Task: structure prediction
Amino acid sequence: MHKENTEKSEGFEPYVLGLVCNWCTYAGADMAGTSRIQYPPNLRLVRVMCTSRLDPGYVIKGLELGADGVLISGCHPGDCHYVNGNYKTERRMQLLRKLVEQAGLEPQRVRLEWISASEGSKLADVMKDYVSVLKKIGPNPLASVKGKQNIDTKDLFTKEVK
Amino acid sequence: MANRKKVVFMQLSSCWGCHQSLLDLHEKLLDVIPLLDIQYWVAAVDFKLDHLEKLPNGSIDAAFIEGLCRTEEDVHLLKLCREKAKALVSLGTCSTYGGAPSIANLYPKRELLERKYLKAETAANRNTIPSENVPEIADYVPQNNQIVKFDAYLPGCPPTSGEIANAVLALLSGKPIEHSNKTICDECKRKKEEKNIKVFKRDFEGRPDTEKCLLDQGYLCMGPGTRAGCGAQCPAANNPCQGCSGPPEGVTDQGARLVGAFGGIADMESPKMLKSFPDPAGQLYKFTYASSPLSKLRRVKKNEK
Result:
């Protein structure tokens, strides 16, 4: 469930959307679970067969719907189950980060990691770090217009600019 | 003729290009014009706005909207057309996706006004931002369909004369406008190969081969993320596709789709690839920024950088 109390940074718990690959990071998360490793519960995982299956639009959609950070994680370079999928993901996400930054959103909100099936502890470390980074930069500004597709025209003309 | 349809061609902030494209039908116009009872068209017919304002609501069969809402005046005209028309048709990319002017959403309004009126190298008088007898400028560029509901749309910058004529004729006979879920690449006749691009080139670098796919040669062609319909005019003229028709049917975010396309076919380290994208929003959302979810940031941040 999405937390509604994201108004203030105080007591702010970031919502992290995790888009992870079936072969490495999802198995890694399983590993973290079966090994009883503690990590922040802010992560919601979506499993895909390979991170190269992700349209960068999914990441933008996640941000539009109010996710404070999107973690994309797959196999280490050279380890992709589909030979070279993660290289494509790397290029896409680096370009996407640049695009998101230009649009005025913190690039840290898009994070790319490589976590293998045996690295449950790395997932925990990454999540601890990511949650602290997101707490510092605060809630996603797009969350405030979530679901508001229509514009009240009064909002277009505030006349405060001089 | 009793069965002529009442139509309005309305211009909001825009360049006239879409109306010009309709007029470019030349003698074919003779097939279209007799079917229309034009009630308002600043470009071609001498009606004043109060004529349109006095018509009863819902009395117009179709209103074609060109351009985007940059000023208070535009919003008024758009809402007026919605009241008067049974069907509202978005004509061109500005009206459908925000168009090139919506790139303005990357910057706060104050910065844009200062650049235009106080810092422009070509401005003779660089000390005032006009505020009297001009309509108020909007804080950000909305997408027209966020203000009123549209019934049909026809993107393109401009849509080709043929596309507009087909759309007008389809609407007059009560059929929907058909949209393609194919891309420019499907229409393009160039020879395409397996793509492993070692270096991306900008439009002005070198001289492209006339037969081979422009992307295979490294030119940043927006074909993979752009709606088919224009007949791949630009690649046919040895010029990379600029992406003016917006995303194909079923895709909402053209820029994201292009990030996916270019990231997938590049065969280089990402720092090298990023050098080819000095202005990713301007390159990938050249015509559709208002329709991007990222554009909503200006709605939230207004005057912030």
In short: The interface with chain B takes residues 52, 55-57, 59-61, 63-64, 88-96, 98-100, 102-105, 141-142, 144-145, 149-151, 153, 155-161 of chain A (CB under 8 Å). Confidence is low (pLDDT under 50) at residues 1-8 of chain A. DSSP finds four helices and four strands in chain A.
